[in-house]
Amino acid sequence: MSLPLLELREVAVRAHGRAILEVERLAVAPAATLAVLGPNGSGKSTLLRVAAALLAPTSGEVRLDGRPAGRAQLRGATSAVLQRPLLRRGSVRHNVETGMRFHGVERQAIGERSEAWMRRLGIDELADRAAHTLSGGEAQRVSLARALAVRPRLLLLDEPFVALDAPTRGELIADLREVLADTGTAALLVTHDRDEAAALGDAIAILHRGRLRQHGPAPEVLDQPADADCARTLGFDNVLPASLAAALLGAERAVALRAADCEVHDPAGGVGLPARLRRVIPLGALARVEVEAAGHAVQATAPVPLPGWLAALGPGDDLGLVLRPEGARLLAAPGPAFDALALGSAADGRRQS
C-alpha cells in the first residue's frame, strides 16, 4: 500500500481559548482528490491553510510522503486556487507565467508551459487581454492555469467555484476533472457544496464544528451519512427520530431522507400517516411541501403545477404522508442536529441552512 501524498496527524488549531480544528488523521492519496465538505464555519479553510503551510497548527504535524514536512517542503509541493482569483496587473499570459517565475522555471519552459495551459483551459485567445477585464469564470481559469503550470504534486482548492454562475461552474468543474485525471495531480478541495464534492472527489471527508465526522470513498459517504449532521450536510432534508421512523417506516433507529423520497397524498384517499400542511414553496418544476407529522417537521415534494387537491389546501389542513423506504438511511447516532427537530426550532434550522 502506497504512502499518502499528504497527511495530517493529530492536528489541532486553537485560538482565543477554543479549538477551531481538531483532526486525528486525514490523508490525500497520490493522484486522487479528497473533497472536504462542511458548512460555513466548520474549519475547512483553516484545514487548507494548514495544508498549505500558511498556518502553523497548535499541535500535530503535516506529513509529505510519510515524513514530517515544513513550510519549504509544502510550498514546493503545492499550488493553490482560491475563491477569488488573485490576479496581478498585466496580461493573462503574464499572470499564467508568474507562478513559474517564482519557482525558478527556465524562460523557454515558461513560454511553452504557459501556452500549453492556456490552450488546455480555453483561454489562449485571451492571452494578451488585461487581467482586470476578465469575467469571473475567465479569471478563475487563469488562476487554474497559473497553479497547474508549476506542476504541483498537490493542488489546493479553496471553494474555487463559489462565485461562478451555474453554467460556467459546470464547465469549469468538468474541465478540471479531466485535467486532474490526465495529469495525475492530487487535489485537496474544500467546499460547502455536495455536488462539487461528488463531481470531483474520489474520497469525501465531512467536517462539522472543526471535527472530522465522516471520511471514506465518495460513493459510500454520499449514500450513507454517519449521523444527523453529516446527513444534513449531504442534502438529506429530513432527519427523523426513531419514534417517527418506526411509525412511518418500521425502522428501529433514526433515519435520514431527502425531500424527494417523501410524498403527500389527498387525505380523502386515506393513504399514509396523518399529517398537517404547514406551507408550499414553489421551486421551478417541483414544490417543497412542509408538513407536520407526529409532532415533527417533514419536508416533501410535489409536482408543479400542484395537484388540484393540494392547491386547494391551506396551512393546518390535513393530508397523508408517505415515505419511500428505499430512500431511507439508518443513522448510527442522533447527533446534535436532533436538537432542531422539534417544530418549535425547525424554522431556525431552515434559516441556518
From TrEMBL:
Pfam family name, one:
ABC_tran
List the PROSITE patterns.
ABC_TRANSPORTER_1 (PS00211), ABC_TRANSPORTER_2 (PS50893)
What's a single GO MF annotation on this record?
ATP hydrolysis activity
Ranges for domain ABC transporter come to: 6-234
Domain of life, per UniProt, equals: Bacteria
Q: What keywords does the record list, in alphabetical order?
A: ATP-binding, Nucleotide-binding, Transport
Q: Name one GO cellular component term.
A: ATP-binding cassette (ABC) transporter complex
Q: Is the DNA-binding keyword given for this protein? A: no
Q: Does the keyword ATP-binding apply?
A: yes
PANTHER family from the xrefs? SPERMIDINE/PUTRESCINE IMPORT ATP-BINDING PROTEIN POTA, SPERMIDINE_PUTRESCINE IMPORT ATP-BINDING PROTEIN POTA
- The entry's protein name is ABC transporter domain-containing protein
Q: Which organism is it from?
A: uncultured Solirubrobacteraceae bacterium
